[in-house]
Specification:
alpha/beta, Rossmann fold, binds S-adenosylmethionine
């Protein structure tokens, strides 16, 4: 598969999971959402369209998003997510979306030393996680992927 096809498949999978979470009403209107990896702001923009009433707190090292999809300053947390996400331990987050995979296995292996634990610690019981990297953690129960999402492109969990 070409890298273009692989990218398109990842985007389709991301969107299918986000839309499924909305369609199945998996997040109440009062639930706080974490967007882990702002990047260009495309998934942030999609999430805020799907969940207009929810607060979305967004993480990255620096703002690199399009001006139309840059979060308000109050909802933006800049710095190394490995450190900044710690303040959300025990904060009963409803949904965490993480898109910080790089396709460089050695870099992703480092991220995986802290990301699953950090997401599990932030979520409330019953909270949802969707991630481009697998989140292997005893408190995160894998959920079946919806139609349109390809295994290995996106990972989907509920906190026990
Ligand atoms: C693939 S991009 C996210 C793309 C985004 N979902 C979108 O739709 O535009 C990943 C982002 O995560 C950020 N990132 C990755 N690891 C990070 C870390 N440890 N701390 C802070 N930011 C990180 C990168 O700077 C990059 O902007």
């Amino acid at each position: 598969m070409s890298r273009l096809d692989s990218f398109i498949s990842r985007m389709h999978s991301q969107r299918a999971v986000l839309n499924h979470i909305k369609d199945q009403s998996m997040i109440g209107p009062d639930g706080v959402i974490l967007e882990i990896g702002l990047g260009n702001g495309r998934t942030y923009d999609h999430i805020r369209e799907l969940f207009p009433d929810n607060r979305i707190i967004v993480f990255d090292r620096a703002v690199g998003s399009h001006p139309d999809s840059t979060p308000p300053e109050a909802d933006l947390i800049l710095g190394d997510i490995k450190e900044t996400i710690r303040r959300f331990d025990g904060k009963n987050i409803a949904f965490a979306h993480a898109d910080i995979g790089t396709a460089y296995p050695e870099k992703d292996a480092k991220t995986l030393t802290w990301l699953p634990q950090s997401v599990a610690a932030a979520l409330r019981s019953g909270g949802i996680a969707a991630s481009g990297l697998p989140l292997d953690h005893p408190e995160l129960e894998p959920l079946p992927l919806p139609a349109g999402a390809e295994p290995g492109r996106t990972y989907f969990y509920r906190k026990r």
